[in-house]
């Protein structure tokens, strides 16, 4: 695998905390427009990997390239966000007292776009732009409600919408369906599949039925390295994976 033509390229990435190797020569290549699911038991290094990509944690060793050219190990979190890497953390953080539409409006205003320069003076974002995002995350009918009134799942979608408003090249999503109903989980798989037609996506997730529903290539981490990679039916049948993850 090569860095050229990849949206994300990790090679030999290691991170130690007080001598403990959270990532151990981890390698991962994501093609443009690809959605990848990352699985693995607790402590496998999934969060640390996301932290390395977003600049929250600096690797001790290894290469981390974005779009084949940008060396992410040299950039801070704000610079990495400005390149077009958006991260959705596990817990939803929306502006509860603002309407659903205003949450998207705020996201469309900045911080990473020249839109703020365009619209900032008039302090106005076209409703069309807001509705376009809201329809992508299935919240158009809820546009006038306070975000605090949404269900847990809907808040997760709203926050994903706020990230989409920034038009990221790469979207990192951490355990999106934790705490969701079965119906919301199914809708989230569909929603992410739609998003992946326009953005590259990395999803960390424990819920195997959700990962199956995504239908994308899966990487299973264990002890900071890739244990298995491929189609979910192949990875989930891998004896080593069953031993460390599914069989517990
Ligand atoms: P996962 O997200 O797959 O559960 P993590 O990346 O959170 O795994 O953690 C990998 C390992 O690194 C764990 O054993 C965890 O305890 C350890 N770890 C993560 N962050 C830190 C930190 N800031 N300080 C010390 N140890 C950490």
TrEMBL record:
CDD domains named among the record's database cross-references: ABC_Mj1267_LivG_branched
* Chain ranges of the ABC transporter domain: 8-248
Report the SUPFAM superfamilies cross-referenced here. Answer: P-loop containing nucleoside triphosphate hydrolases (SSF52540)
Determine if Isomerase is one of this entry's keywords: no
Sorted alphabetically, the keyword list is: ATP-binding, Nucleotide-binding, Transport
> What are this entry's molecular-function GO terms?
ATP binding; ATP hydrolysis activity
Q: Pfam families per the record?
A: ABC_tran
Tell me what this protein is called: ABC transporter ATP-binding protein
What organism does this protein naturally occur in?
Answer: Blastochloris tepida
